[in-house]
Amino acid sequence: MQQFKNFFSELQEAFKQELINTGRLNKTAIMLLLLMPVIYTIIFGYTYAANVLNDIPVAVCDLQQSKISRTAIFNYDTSDRFNIVKHVNSLDELEACIKSGQAKVGLYIEPNLDKRIKTALPAEISILIDATNVVYGSAALVAAEEINMNLKVAGEQKILERLSYYPDKALNVAYPAAISLRILNNPTNSYTNFMLLGLVCNGIQISLYLYTADTFIKNRSRRWTFPTALLLGKTLAIGITSLTSFIFCLWLAHTIFAVPLRAPWYEFLSLLVAFELLFITLGIFFALAFGRAVNAIQDTLLFIMPGLLYSGLSWPNEWVGSLPAYIRALFPITYLAIPLRDLSLQGYSVLLNNDIVVLFTGTIILALIDYVLLRYRLGKEAAI
């Protein structure tokens, strides 16, 4: 009975040590575990708040100067996606505008456009796109294809009307199959919905790494009798604090930035708890494996840098080679970012149960290793 009381006393002390330090609130825990993820959420949320790229700067070289060419230019200029910023007189000048950064897109209209159209020869309006930034390139390509299709159908309709077709009949002949497009799960094609929760995950893992990797190196003056009480007490304190911040970040993403949270909350919580427990035990491992706080933090930061890259957040896992597939299995964020986004946008994730099992299994293995390392450390310090 006395041993149980002593165990519970050390458990309580280890728990309080992470929340209250020398009689005051632990400012480090508040800053890293509570505030850092919230700051990440707000900063990245506003970064992607526009959701889509509008007013992409366009330079125009119109060598035809006809009604048809002016109609094409007008369609680009009135589109939300484009903003015509400059007119030039040659293809070389157009390319120079793009190279200098004055424009991201170039619209080149050949001098014999009208003649080719009237004689039923292939006519070309060239679109030059600067794809140095692939986000600009992709957005411009999709919008340009839509505008060009509308121009093509309108032109063919006019030609058929001159051949005595009624307008409705001419449109049906020019555009016989109406393409109906439905975007599922993320209908606005929003960058915020696509990226924000994954970046929040990255903020959480950084805050947990920075704090947990340091927590077992400091405050070792206390002689602990029960290593399990020390491990469990600190894990509970860090986990509850970080989980509170994580839930608040999800609420911020949903309330301020309109990120949907379609799955039941218990599924989100199950995934978050599994992820944070693994991260905490991993941080403890690094703290115990390295004697100095600087080394522990440096090595953990090096560990997390490729984690976001291999998580599948920005590039689909299906298109990553076989070797990186083995590498990304080592990073905990791999088992969080994609199922979290699926739960948010789809309302379910086929990866959820498997990833939770993997995270909890990793937690158990690391907890056992941490226990052995902690006993070794405590025994070594007691002998000094």
Percent of sequence in beta strands: 5-15%
Give me the oligomer status: single chain
| Secondary structure tally, helices | 14
Query: In what order do the strands lie side by side in the largest sheet?
Result: 4-3-5-6
Helix content: 55-70%
Order of helices and strands: HEEHEHEHEHEHHHHHHHHH
Shape: elongated
Q: How many structural domains can be distinguished in the coordinates?
A: 2
**Which structural class do the helices and strands define?**
alpha/beta
| Spatial gap, N to C terminus | 31 Å
Q: What can you see in these coordinates?
A:
By secondary structure, the chain is of the alpha/beta class. The protein folds into 2 domains: 2-49 and 190-382, no CATH class; 56-174, 3-Layer(aba) Sandwich (abc type-2 transporter like fold). Helix content is 64%, strand content 7%. The protein has 14 helices and 6 strands. The chain has helices at 2-19, 27-47, 67-77, 91-100, 113-118, 134-162, 167-174, 191-215, 227-255, 265-289, 293-310, 322-328, 337-345, 352-382, and strands spanning 20-21, 24-25, 56-62, 82-88, 105-109, 125-129. The strands form 2 sheets. The chain has a 4-stranded mixed β-sheet, with helices on both faces. A two-stranded antiparallel ribbon has the order 1-2. Helix 3 links the parallel strand 3 and strand 4. Helix 6 packs across helix 7 and helix 10 packs across helix 11. The radius of gyration is 29 Å and the shape is elongated.
